[in-house]
Amino acid sequence: MTKNKDSKINLKPKLFSKLRTYFLTGIVVAAPITVTGWVVLWFIQAIDGWFSPFAPNRFEGLPLSIPGLGIISALVILTLLGALTTNFFGKAIIGYGERQVDRLPVIRNIYGALKQIFQTIASKNENNFQRVVMLEYPRKDCWAIAFVTTESKGEIAAKHKKELLCVFLPTTPNPTSGFLLFISKDDVIELDMTVESAAKLIISAGLVMPENNS
């Protein structure tokens, strides 16, 4: 009788340990799926809310509204807008509007900066934001991950003896904010990892470490 009681007592910690392991495993599996689904749903609802005035809420014969109709409307509207601005008439309208914006002291600076950013993002140049480097920051022997955006040009390049790189140093865990640095090519170590792998490393605060591809 004593042995049976002892075996039952010993089984309880093992059972709780297994249940705990199963529970944590379930969280690891479900959490990314849930968060991803929530982000996708939020994105669809946001786009639907913005573009719903341009699309019918209901189709004839269907009593329910169709989720994602706003995204389809956004794609159609933006594609038509892009097609319009490629011809002479559209360019003339855009040019006239930009000339009016240039007369506004503060708005012209905001518009000009945003226009340059989106033109850079939409550019087909493969060198834009495609290289990952390590640099010593914020002090010597302390290394950080950064993205090379371009090589320095204009006055910055002319007034510096060394050849400089323009790099974006993102913050953790939010890589959309960071610092713009101009640093010598000799002071960076270029990495083989992709931009996506580096972004995962930054967002996860080092928990998702990319494998060595060399």
Strands, helices and their partners?
Blueprint: H1 2-51, H2 69-85, H3 88-101, H4 105-122, E1 131-136, E2 143-151, H5 154-158, E3 164-170, E4 178-184, E5 188-190, H6 195-203
Antiparallel strand pairs: 1-2, 1-5, 2-3, 3-4
Question: What do these coordinates show?
Answer:
The protein is of the alpha+beta class. The chain has helices spanning 2-51, 69-85, 88-101, 105-122, 154-158, 195-203; strands at 131-136, 143-151, 164-170, 178-184, 188-190. It has a domain at 131-203: SH3 type barrels. Helix content is 53%, strand content 15%. It starts with a helix and ends in an 11-residue tail after the last helix. The mean pLDDT is 75.
Alpha-beta content class: alpha+beta
Low-confidence regions? none
CATH class of the domain at 131-203, named: Mainly Beta
CATH topology of the domain at 131-203: SH3 type barrels
Largest sheet report: 5 strands, antiparallel
Q: Helix count, per DSSP?
A: 6
Q: Please identify, by name, the CATH architecture of the domain at 131-203.
A: Roll
Tell me the strand order in the biggest sheet: 4-3-2-1-5
Q: What is the element string, with H for helices and E for strands?
A: HHHHEEHEEEH
Count of beta strands: 5
Shape: flat
Distance between the termini: 62 Å
Q: Level of helix content?
A: 40-55%
| Averaged pLDDT | 75
Q: Roughly what fraction of the amino acids lie in strands?
A: 5-15%
Radius of gyration: 27 Å
